[in-house]
Specification:
The complex is a heterodimer of chains A (195) and B (336). Chain A has 195 residues and is mainly alpha-helical. In chain A, 76% of the residues lie in helices and 0% in strands. Chain A has two domains: 91 residues; 56 residues, Orthogonal Bundle (Arc Repressor Mutant, subunit A), CATH 1.10.10. The chains are: A mainly alpha (195), B alpha+beta (336).
Chain lengths: 195, 336
């Protein structure tokens, strides 16, 4: 028989209600899921956000968000739910980061390059050169490949939207984008060594 | 120029796109991470890709000189702002350790008639709505105390502890003011909230118009708040910058909900202790500064703390029925 924490337990009945049992098992499921997926979440978030501290914050915030509403959750795919919650917090953070950089970019380029404390000093120093390199590399791409990639990465369009505007299939768009990234990344690191 | 990248670059590119996809799924991300963690070569290929994509992000933020790039509204979504890591709203919030209660009661009524004196205090966990003689109302939060001193030409409140939400009845002849620490809020017809912390006061204006003054050994100031704004006043007289906040969340304690955004654990616990039947004790200083974002129902504080403990990997001890102890987890102890 599962124990209900005394905080939640009304003395009026000796029978533990099914919903109380469900709440207890959901609490356990959530805790276990968090412990099990935490490292994965943090590593994923670190890649997206660039900072270990922010990655930890988001993972914790995601767990707490679910914890606070756990009596409304269903015991299914909790790991995906935790992941999506964290991913969406990261999405929001990237948007607001972009927004604040857009704002500072109005003033001057240098301020936008130096104002973001989430970037490492190394990134800032190499920042300007690498931007020039990106321009050169993009120009090397075949037209369709470049159009697909620029629309995806710089214009933030979905694969499906790009497919429609280019009159090709979505899977073709994916192939173009993938080729562009694979090629450009290799060229980029090649050229970085030269500069 | 040939566009046949080596297979590893191609795989790395695929996984990098998966990880950066705003609609990524857990399965794909786990697969990507497994591949990246599989060997140093894989990781190297992935990091190379990520560096290129990062450079693209920076390029897309440049206002000018973009090669064949047209900004669409897609990248400039401005409607969602997630303030998780925005600067803390209360500039002067300091570590709360002990709540000192000083019930000093001064000034006897000089005149009869409109003069009115009283003191009100709430217990831990108690919310109380008061209606004052002029029709103004006060909602007192848990473990809060005010004294009321009405004279024929002024209405004065002293917030000694906790927080209170004031809805002020209009009376041009008698300004309504609330003193807290070295801060003074003056209003005519308006609704605002004042919160007393250990070494500072936080004022939030719901609607109307208030003047806020502050005077102490380290400085003084006068400012006006617009509806939706909040300001922090340190007891040494220094005044923070007014900021817009989500007022409905700031005053949600009336509905039994406390909201925290990027707030140090010490302040979260100080707030919760005004509502929790069991005193919450933070045992180790090194966890007092953990930044917390979350919403707490007043009835289930103990329960929420358990979630907090899991999220931040701290130890929660509820074995003593009168207190809840939070302590740093012993690093030598293996994780459960």
């Amino acid at each position: 028989m599962a124990q209900v924490p005394d905080d939640d337990c009304k003395e009026t009945s000796k029978v533990v209600s099914i919903s109380a049992l469900a709440a207890v098992s959901m609490a356990t499921t959530l805790e276990e899921t968090f412990r099990e997926k935490r490292d994965t979440l943090v590593q994923y978030l670190r890649f997206r956000i660039g900072s270990e501290g922010d990655a930890q914050d988001i993972a914790q915030a995601a767990f707490l968000r679910l914890w606070e509403k756990r009596d409304r959750l269903h015991d299914k795919n909790i790991d995906s739910l935790l992941f999506v919650t964290a991913r969406n917090i990261a999405n929001d953070m990237l948007r607001s980061r972009k927004r604040s950089r857009d704002w500072t970019a109005e003033a001057s380029i240098s301020s936008s390059e130096f104002s973001d404390d989430s970037e490492s000093p190394e990134r800032i120093v190499t920042g300007r050169n690498s931007l020039a390199i990106v321009r050169v590399i993009l120009a090397e791409l075949p037209d369709k490949c470049r159009t697909a990639f620029v629309n995806y990465k710089f214009n933030g369009l979905e694969y499906e939207e790009i497919a429609r505007s280019m009159g090709i299939t979505e899977s073709m768009v994916r192939k173009h984008v993938l080729r562009a990234v694979a090629h450009c990344a290799a060229r980029f690191s090649e050229m970085e060594e030269w500069v | 120029m040939s566009l046949i990248p080596n297979p590893k670059d191609r795989i790395a590119a695929g996984y990098a796109l998966d990880l950066n996809d705003s609609n990524a799924t857990l399965d794909r991300v786990e697969e990507a991470l497994a591949w990246i963690n599989h060997s140093p070569e894989n990781r190297h290929a992935f990091e190379r890709t990520q560096r290129f994509l990062d450079a693209c992000d920076r390029l897309s933020e440049m206002p000018d000189d973009k090669p064949r790039i047209v900004r669409s509204s897609g990248v400039l979504i401005r409607s969602f702002y997630y303030p998780l890591l925005a600067a803390s709203i209360a500039i002067f919030m300091l570590t709360v350790t002990v709540m000192t209660i000083s019930f000093f009661y001064k000034r006897q009524s000089e005149e009869g008639g409109v003069a009115f004196h009283d003191q009100y205090a709430t217990n831990v966990g108690e919310l109380r709505t008061l209606v004052l003689p002029d029709g103004s109302s006060v909602v007192l939060g848990g473990s809060s105390a005010i004294s009321v001193n009405y004279q024929k030409n002024e209405r004065r409140i002293h917030l000694m502890q906790g927080e209170a939400l004031f809805a002020v009845a209009k009376d041009r002849a008698r300004p309504f003011s609330v003193k807290s620490g070295n801060g003074l809020v003056t209003a005519r017809g308006t609704e605002f909230q004042v919160k007393r912390e250990t070494k500072n006061t936080v004022v939030t204006l719901v609607h109307g118009f208030v003047d806020v003054t502050s005077k102490g050994h380290a400085g003084e100031g006068l400012t006006h708040l617009k509806p939706g704004m909040q300001i922090g006043l340190a007891d040494d007289g220094k005044m923070g910058q007014p900021k817009y906040v989500d007022v409905s969340r700031v005053i949600d304690w009336r509905n039994g909900l406390l909201h925290f955004e990027d707030t140090p654990l010490s302040l979260v616990v100080a707030d919760l202790n005004r509502y929790s039947k069991r005193a919450i004790i933070v045992e180790n200083q090194n966890i007092e500064n953990i930044r917390v974002t979350g919403s707490v129902k007043i009835e289930t504080i103990g329960d929420w703390l358990r979630g907090l403990a899991t999220a931040f990997d701290i130890e929660i001890d509820q074995s003593n029925p009168t207190v809840i102890q939070l302590r740093a987890r012993n690093v030598s102890r293996p994780l459960a």
